[in-house]
Amino acid sequence: MTTIRLTNTKTRTKEDFVPIDPRDVRMYVCGPTVYDRAHLGNARPVIVFDVLFRLLRHVYGADQVTYVRNFTDVDDKINAEAQRRKSLGDPRTLEELIRERTEETIRWYHEDMDALGAMRPTMEPRATEWIGAMIAMIQDLIASGHAYEKEGHVLFRVRSYKDYGKLSGRSVDDMIAGARVEVAPFKEDPMDFVLWKPSTDDLPGWDSPWGPNNGRGRPGWHIECSAMSHELLGDSFDIHGGGIDLQFPHHENEIAQSACAHPEGSFARVWMHNEMLQVEGKKMSKSLGNFFTVRDLLDKGIPGEVIRFVFLSTHYSKPMDWTEEKARQAETELAQWRTVTDTVDASEVTVDTLLALSNDLNTHGVLTELRRLFRQGDHGALKASAELVGLLTPEVAWDYKKQHVMFVPLTIYNKVLDPIAAKIVQAREAKDYATSDRIRDAVIAAGYEVKISKAGVEITPTEHADPAKLEALK
Ligand SMILES: Nc1ncnc2c1ncn2[C@@H]1O[C@H](COP(=O)(O)OP(=O)(O)OP(=O)(O)O)[C@@H](O)[C@H]1O
Ligand SMILES: [Zn+2]
């Protein structure tokens, strides 16, 4: 059986992945807070963990892998949007408006992530459906001295958990010095974080054992993931994932809660974090306002498969940018691959594809292998290997005869252009620059742009392109 190796953030090393139970491999990934459309950065963990899900299914069997990704549907940002609608005169109750907001956001999320070819996780629990489990877990934490109630709030006593900070490699004192921890009168220690907080009558709330008004309140964000992962995956499971921005405090807090409530278990064995999609060196985020949504790109006509390809071209552990140039190149390659695999049956995933992917999800290496298969004309293997990373599948099919990313309206003249590009490369390799220049000039005269670089020769039609003039050059 293939050995998968994954970089475990907890140990900071690449480790052989050994599932607790190979017949039931279990993964939890922190999902979105459903208050608005997903931005392109939010799509990165979806694609990264979709690729891992596909690999696990390939290695252990499609029915032997459970992937849970939650929806956080209780949050101040959701309430704020509902309140905004109410203030604009919507006659419905705040509860109805909140429900409407979360429902529509979940629907959008599914539509957008489906368009990127991401498989739906096995289970997608909503926080509001698991409040009972959260309350029970908080009660256990209070009973064992790891949490306390004060003024209707319940707080986790961070100093009661000696390993706090291990995941992110920080000491509690460093964290206090460096972090934006909220100092509040109801906290014994500034590091303590909220497990439960009171709710007013007009905001979403559930009865609880804590505080006045039947303890009407709502859970803190961190306890949601600890409770839902425990309910659905048990005391110990294999992989926990999310973006690196969640490592501290969210994941640190999840670990503290789960380890203290279920000391008999090991919670997640492997922690994996994807790096950020950036815009000019900064994390793409709602709060910085430097974002565009997945839907913006799809509406521009950029195929979801192209977006997926661009993400796969950078390793998940490296920051990356979105550029139109990357999208254009991705589209060109995918169009070529789709042209040759369209009527071909998938054969077998190649050994090199599996080796690259099993090596800590080296998706860039997989693309290199796919290029090799394309060049060698091994189209059945190209299709099978591409499908393993969610490319060339029917779910993300698009009209590849039409160009989408460039704004010049054109068809892709691969069949003519490829042999001409190859001739230029051959002439240059033979140092016959007179011939390569002659062909290049003729191609330009036919209305094409020619880019020659170390990576190869790229010919793209301009709006004046006249394919008939190329026939003689073939
Ligand atoms: N720029 C980014 N690049 C990669 N992953 C990201 C980026 N921004 C958020 N994520 C990830 O998206 C997932 C959903 O996060 P969440 O719903 O908390 O995001 P958000 O609150 O909409 O984002 P923001 O960080 O923009 O406020 C998390 O796994 C998070 O790590
Ligand atoms: Zn989480």
From TrEMBL:
It is an enzyme of class 6 (ligase). The keyword Protein biosynthesis applies. It holds the Pfam family tRNA-synt_1e. InterPro entries: Cys-tRNA-ligase, Cys-tRNA/MSH_ligase, Rossmann-like_a/b/a_fold, tRNA-synt_1_cat_dom, tRNAsynth_Ia_anticodon-bd. Keywords: Aminoacyl-tRNA synthetase, ATP-binding, Cytoplasm, Ligase, Metal-binding, Nucleotide-binding, Protein biosynthesis, Zinc. It is found in: Cytoplasm. Binds 1 zinc ion per subunit. Residues 17-330 form the tRNA synthetases class I catalytic domain. Its main location: cytoplasm. It comes from the Bacteria. Zn(2+) binds at C30, C225, H250, E254. A motif ('KMSKS' region) lies at residues 283-287. Belongs to the class-I aminoacyl-tRNA synthetase family. This is Cysteine--tRNA ligase. It comes from Albidovulum sediminicola.
